[in-house]
Amino acid sequence: MSDQEVFENPDEAKSRQSSESDQQRERILGAFGALHETLGRRVSHADVERVSDLREALLSGDRARAAEHLETAKSESSWLYDELMKHPQITAILQELSIMGF
Fold first, then answer.
1. Closest CA to 90 of 34, 47, 17
2. How many Cβ atoms are within 10 Å of 8's Cβ, its own excluded?
3. Are 25 and 41 in contact (CB under 8 A)?
4. By the 8 A CB rule, do 77 and 50 touch?
5. Segment 75-85, tens digit of pLDDT
6. Which helix (H) or strand (E) holds 33?
7. Regarding predicted confidence, which is higher, 38 or 3?
8. How far is CA 97 from CA 6, 46, 61, 90, in A?
9. Residue 34's pLDDT is what?
10. 86: nearest Cα among 24, 34, 47
């Protein structure tokens, strides 16, 4: 536990965590919204579900489920996986999560 955690006002810490969580949620929603605009009508119904499942897993913070959905996209729809990996905002989010143990 850091000095900041020990001496910090618990209400301020909770507020800061909530704000960070809201910012992360907005980043994820924005990234997947931008991906949707990029993909347009090329996506099948199954691909839309794959992307939606991955987005929901990331929003919920379920790393295991997100990894599973990413692996499913890779094995069942390689072009979609490629699009996910080359999208700058999604790549940045996945890299941040990998640093945190994703």
1. 34
2. 13
3. no
4. yes
5. 999 999 999 99
6. helix 10-39
7. 38
8. 26, 25, 10, 11
9. 94
10. 34
pTM above 0.70, yes or no: yes
**101: three-class secondary structure by DSSP:** coil
**Percent composition of the chain: helix, strand, coil (DSSP 3-state, to 5):** 85, 0, 15
Residues 6+ positions from 72 with CB-CB distance below 8 Å: 50, 53
Two tokens, residue 91: 């790549």
Q: How far apart are CA 85 and CA 68, in angstroms?
A: 15
Q: How far is the first Cα of the chain from the last one, in angstroms, to the nearest whole number?
A: 22
Gyration radius (Cα) of the chain, Å: 16
> Measuring CA to CA, how many Å separate 90 from each of 19, 30, 81?
20, 9, 11
**Rounded CA gap, 43 and 47, in Å?**
6
pLDDT of residue 46 exceeding 70, the answer is yes
Instruction: Name the residue ranges covered by the structural domains of the chain.
Output: 7-99
